[in-house]
């Protein structure tokens, strides 16, 4: 877990991955206090950012599901954002049920790009190693206009 104890906004930037808290750990009144330990059971939200090439201007939020094989389509969460190396014609029957697509494959004429435009699914392409960097069950927010993907994780300080 990463804890921050000042009002300064910390950012770690390495190969298109940024790690930044949306706020410092609060005191009893919700303000960050430099050098002060946070109380038990205080939640902080850490966002991890990825970038790629967005298709369209839509945004989407949902729960991540990595799809590597046919069996990964079983028990999809509600409003899934699928993470794939590339989409294929075999996936077409499943795609109307997803809220967004994150694909490692680049290209405005790739299968994922064409299908996302046809079905109106928010898609971000060219996200290097996405199937290895994401985990199933993460909260994912996609902004296709900027190509930015935010993964939020809520952690408890004990």
**Mind telling me the C-alpha Rg?**
18 Å
Residue-averaged pLDDT: 77
The biggest beta sheet is recorded as: 10 strands, mixed
Under CATH at level 1, the class of the domain at 53-147 stands as Alpha Beta
What is the helical fraction, as a range of percent? under 10%
Output the number of helix runs: 2
Strand share of the residues?
35-45%
SS elements, strand count: 10
Q: State the separation between the terminal residues, measured CA to CA.
A: 10 Å
Q: Strand order within the widest sheet?
A: 1-2-3-10-9-5-6-7-8-4
Structural class: mainly beta
CATH architecture of the domain at 53-147: 3-Layer(bba) Sandwich
Shape: globular
| Low confidence ranges | 1-27, 36-44, 154-158
CATH superfamily of the domain at 53-147: Phosphohistidine domain
Regarding quaternary structure, how should these chains be classified? single chain
Indicate the CATH topology of the domain at 53-147: Glucose Oxidase, domain 1
One letter per element, helices H and strands E, the order comes to EEEEEEEHEHEE
Q: How would you characterize the overall build of this protein?
A:
By secondary structure, the chain is mostly beta strands. The chain is built from two helices and ten strands. Residues 1-27, 36-44 and 154-158 have low confidence and may be disordered. Strand 1 (12-14) and strand 2 (17-21) form a beta hairpin. It has a ten-stranded mixed β-sheet, with helices on one face. The radius of gyration is 18 Å and the shape is globular.
